[in-house]
Amino acid sequence: MPSVCFYFEVHQPYRLKPYGALQVGRDHDYFDEKLNAEVLRKVANTCYLPANEAMLRMIERTDGRFRASYALTGVVIEQMKLYAPEVLDSFVRLAKTGSVELIAETYYHTLAALYDKDEYRDQIEMEMKLIESEFGQVPRVFRNTELIYNDEIGQLIADEGFNAMIIEGADDVLDWRSPNFVYRVAGRDMKLLVKNYKLSDDIAFRFSNKDWSDYPLTAEKFAGWIHGRSGAGDVVNLFMDYETFGEHQWKETGIFDFLEQLPDLLFTHPQWDILTPSQVVDRYPALGELPCQRTVSWADEARDVSAWQGNAMQQRALAEIYSLGSAVRRRNNSHLLALWRRLQTSDHFYYMATKSNFDAAVHDYFSPYEGPYDAFIHYMNVMKDLNLSVLATAEKQIQL
Fold it and tell me: Is the CA virtual torsion 197, 200, 204, 207 positive or negative?
């Protein structure tokens, strides 16, 4: 019986406020609390609350046959508690249905996997404890920040005891393989669930694009595409940002109607079902190893890490923040440690990207700044102040 697997990413960063050179040494309050609250509440009303209500209706209407999975970063859960606790409550209700699986990732949504393996493990452990505390689930499946993956990362996650990892289905990595099978990490037994990016992006990016040759995308048409893969794989993995529903694709596009109609149409072919990632792992054997010697992600057309490391500004900023790790830890200051970790969040470096064409439009859509150079200047001014704070006395408390 072939399956569909839905995974949704839920994340909001702590955005920096405009931070000028004259504030260095004087102002340790780096984040734009007003903007962060506004964004969280806006997305709660356009996406999180209506989408969760739709998911709950689909689960109830199908007697639990509709299933989904989520990864909620630690920083988005923190902000839900601060600005919209009803949103967190709605995710808890979904988790209690038995049809929703919580996936682990890095608590602060960082690039630590590429820079600081000990920090990476610490953030995974923090996320695991948070998910168990808030939702009563112990995650068995892991997704790295922005689906950043290579063999080394996969082996590290396997050694941490996870049963599976969610990764991007980059064409050059798959080569002749299909994303619609389960694979194994090179040199390990841990399974890999590979995103079918073409079908996922039809929903996430192309749904409302009137210039797209397949516009409009109806639930009937999409279900037909899924059913057309019968006999050509075990599972179609549809992985995307949860904000697709109502925020990136507005309600007026019909995205919620599409979402609610899709499960019933998928079930019109009785051989198809919908599984959570752990259920996929339990049911389907791995077809073989999937070597991944280059580092991939689900960002931009290149599906690499150039969205965060592609220019000298990003490289300098990343080198700066991770160079402070030892000094921060030596201070044994929990406030300072949390502050340093919030400044690792990948979004800060994403805003500094100097991309072109469609990639540039996507980066600009998410950025709160006028451009990448403003993002870099504000961030590096914060780094100057953080350096002064790190070098200050161990007793100094940095208030968040």
Answer: positive
